What does this fold into?
Amino acid sequence: MSEFGDFIISGFKGTEFNRELERRLLVDKIGGLIFFSRNIASRRQVKNLINSCRAARDSVSKTPLIMAVDHEGAPVHRFGSLVDELPSHAAFAKSKLKRYAAPLWQGAAEDLASLGFNANFAPVLDVGRKGKSSAMGIRSFGCEKKDAIGFGAEFMEGMRRGRISCFAKHFPGLGKTGTDSHFSLPVIGESRRKLLDEDAGVFKSLIKRELVDGILLAHAVYPRLDMKFPASMSRKIITGLLYGKLKFNGVAVTDDIDMLAIRKNYETGYFARKSVEAGAHFILACHNKSPIQKIFAGLAGIKPETLESRLRSIRSWKENILSRKKPQRPGAARRAGDYAWKIAGEAASIKIKNKIGRKNHIFLCFIPQAVRGDRDILRIKKMLKTRIDKTFPGAGTVFYPAAPAREDLEKKTPVIITYNAYKDKKMLGSVMSAIEAAGKNCYCLAVADPVDSDYFDSCAGAGCSYSPDIRSVSELLRMLKEKENEK
It folds into this structure.
């Protein structure tokens, strides 16, 4: 059933061209690969691996292989220190520095292209909900439709200049829910009018500008659009709305089939069949918990004429879009770092109501526990410790769940740093206990979602960086030091 391989973009294990990849490319003949932190060790290793994968693909097919990664900016960053980590989408919007976005993202695209990538599953175009937390958090440009359109356009224009194709996500919009589709299936009950105008309206505007190469479909149910199926397997949403009303002429990929939103509710083969019948071109299988052969079995139940039509679209898109060579504007990559510092500086903010006045500091860092060697969390912890030591030499640093000595809270200036503490009731409880133990005589800094700041009202000072990348954290710590030293 290898003729179905073109419908699959697959994740894989390891950092070398191994037997798993050999089977995926030579036997299953899959159409694309997606890279995660587990596949990335060094720049040379990534280049060699991508070249090996391409050579294998060339031996069985004339159409190019999709080599994709999620390169959104913080906190979704797969490369560690190998590729520059950029501020989050939320930090871009907060900075209001739209003029820097396209050249900055062109620099990022040039870096990705130099490694051999040709596709990016970004930007995140979901519009958040005002006054409530969103599952997307700082991954989105916020609650304003105009920000998602404006910064999304700059993002995709920059990527295109750097020869990277973008899959905008998560259509028709995942911003209006606090439910994470990694763990359960969201049901978004917004009115049809609001969904079409605000959420899908962002995609509509950018499709009209011919900036969208691909769409990534949300695993969420929208009862006002389709009472029965989630967007990723809904004919009404994919064929009717995306390709019909919005006149989209690119390709669509489902979100990861291994997410619990799907695995807990639909059999693998059934999901694959319904998605492609509904209009999707690719099934994304990031972690291979849903076996490829089950996906093939589902696709075998589709009418041959439907499969052939979809395959023609895939091949045409790859030849015309994925292989597209666009002229670059010189100098973008050289100045990208400067632009990122400016965005970080404009996005971060801090307000001190009462100076504590103690000379020494103790930093209490409430970062989630790393699960199964979570490289991103470990990287953030290491970065935080490094930046604290550089900005406040000699300061003590304590990471959750460890607790500081009461003597430190009484004799030093406690600085509480949180990373999405509001999502973890136990960790948030520890944050509030630390504030109480310090007698509210502490500063509180959120380095990710500003929702954490809602719990800092009683403290001597509070701030937020809107992004956990190194520049944003550095700027927030710098601002704290400057505020403390002001007369």
Summary: The two ends are 73 Å apart (CA to CA).
